[in-house]
Amino acid sequence: MEKFTTSLQDNVSGLQKILRLDKNFDLIYKDMKIDGVDAGFFFIDGFIEDGIMQRILQYFYGLKKEDLRNADFFASAGLPYVEVDVETDVDMVVTNILSGVAAFFVDGFDQCVMIDCRTYPMRSVDEPWKDKVLRGSRDGFVETLVFNAALMRRRIRDPKFSVEIMRVGERSRSDVALCYIEDKADPRLVKSLKDKLSHLKVEALTMNVESIAECLLPGKWINPFPKFKYSERPDTAAAAVFDGNVVLMVDNSPAVIILPTSLFDMLEEADDFYFPPLVGCYLRFSRFLITILAVFLTPVWMLLLNNPEWVPGWLEFILISDNITVPVIFQLLILEIAIDGLKMAAVSTPNALSTPLSVVAGIIVGEYAISSGWFNAESMLYMAFITIATYSQASFEMGYALKFCRVMILILTEIFSLWGFVAGTAITVMMVVCNRTLSGKSYIYPLIPFNADKLKRKLLRIRLPHEYD
Q1: What is residue 126's DSSP assignment?
Q2: Angle, helices 396-434/277-306, rounded to nearest 10 degrees
Q3: Contact present, 135 and 274 (Cβ < 8 Å)
């Protein structure tokens, strides 16, 4: 079917073949008559707002033939509804029907009247379980794009704030929205994102935001440090937009992508700004310190265990006094994998059993692991701190990047002692410095290139002077 004709029968039969109505129980075509004129519309049963559609149908039955002059007149003057459009492209009509829009046809119209009275199944906008805050907003993004855009609009009442929608995926045709403030966002980044999204050759966005991320940066998987910041908090996304970033939303995903992203952005959290500056600075410095310890605590301990003569007298308590049956390097590596196993088990465990599982894993397994000789108490202690430090990161991706660097430094330290530790640290620093954002800017901006005002704000919980104007 190349284009619509003035014959209702031809238009309906053509769409029925394309949509395969005989094989889809939820795709429905309802025919009707308006003052003796044949008409009908296609819709998906689960996406239609029943109350609105019922009122529209009641209005249709009261129309006269003179109200059916043409599609444009009918859409503008003959239909008492706001979200109405006239479409001539067959592919666009098919996509809109599959998105939930009702397609209305009238005998004699060579165009289709699109009535957007859809409603998507949606959970409540509860606070995300991962991005919780001690004080602040308790709402979160959901899987419906239009509601996520509304949560942003509620916080940004600026006429220069734009939410541009595109469709990505040759088969899925998923809705993707770019959110930015025109006079704050980098126009080159906005243009680059539009070009990349419009030319993406992908069948479907199966994994939503992750599919988009892998398409935008294909082959950039060697460096473990994340190039995107994900968030499920509308206040975090709105603050990023005010800072000149671009927020990328994907339908069916409660997480959004914030672009561009630097290392300092990954270490920021909403709690930093929901408390007074002094408390916010303390929280931020604590997070920086915990992040550094999460990478270097066990490698430094391993280095000192292998070179006990370097340990001063006041630090001798860090050495292992008990018998070591399993080499410490293997103890730490086994515990690294075991912690990930516990994470996966916790995700797959029903809520009613998650607490008993944590008790069993943390107390019983840990106690018997030490008493059986597999692990030393010091190894369990340091890995327990590492686990807590990992959960202090709001970003899963950053947590795993720190984990990979820690394991690499551990192995190099065990093999080459001090030079291995230095080499592992140098490789970690190089991975951070050489990592590039989607916009091509430095991953450690505003440190390189240096921007004193921006760096002060990233290190301290303060506001820039122009933000008070």
Answers
A1: P
A2: 80
A3: yes
Question: Other CB atoms closer than 10 Å to residue 61's CB: what's the count?
Answer: 10
Buried/exposed code over 14-44 (b: 16+ C-beta within 10 A; e: otherwise): bbeeebeeeeeeebeeeeeebeebbbbbbbb
Is pLDDT larger for residue 358 or for residue 390? Answer: 390
Which tokens is 463 given?
A: 């506001």
Q: Confirm if 265 and 194 have CB atoms less than 8 A apart.
A: no
pLDDT tens for each residue of 154-193: 999 999 999 999 999 888 889 999 999 999 999 999 999 9
Tell me how far apart the alpha carbons of residues 364 and 349 are, in angstroms, rounded to a whole number.
18
Residue 194's identity, in one-letter code, is K
pLDDT at residue 469 greater than cutoff 60: no
Find out whether 136 and 270 touch, Cβ atoms under 8 Å.
yes
Token pair for residue 318? Answer: 């860090």
Inter-residue contact 424 to 418 (CB < 8 Å): no
Distance, CA of 77 to CA of 67 (rounded, Å): 8
Instruction: At 442, give phi and psi (nearest 5°).
Output: -65, 145
Q: Is 44 left (phi over 0), alpha (psi -120 to 50) or beta?
A: beta
DSSP per residue over 427-450, as a string? HHHHHHHH-B-TTS-BTTTTTTTT
Residue among 57, 24, 30, 59 nearest 42 (CA): 30
One-letter amino acid identity for 85?
Answer: D
pLDDT digits 0-9 by tens, 263-290: 998 988 888 888 888 998 999 999 999 9
| Structural contact between residues 343 and 358, judged by C-beta atoms closer than 8 angstroms | no
Does pLDDT of 466 surpass 50? no
Residue whose C-alpha is closest to residue 128's, from 269, 250, 276: 269
Cβ(167)–Cβ(95) below 8 Å: yes
Q: Any residues with CB less than 8 A from the CB of 161 and at least 6 apart, and which?
A: 152, 153, 179, 180, 181, 182, 241
Is beta strand 112-115 parallel, antiparallel or unpaired with respect to 161-168?
Answer: unpaired
Which H helix or E strand runs over 285?
helix 277-306
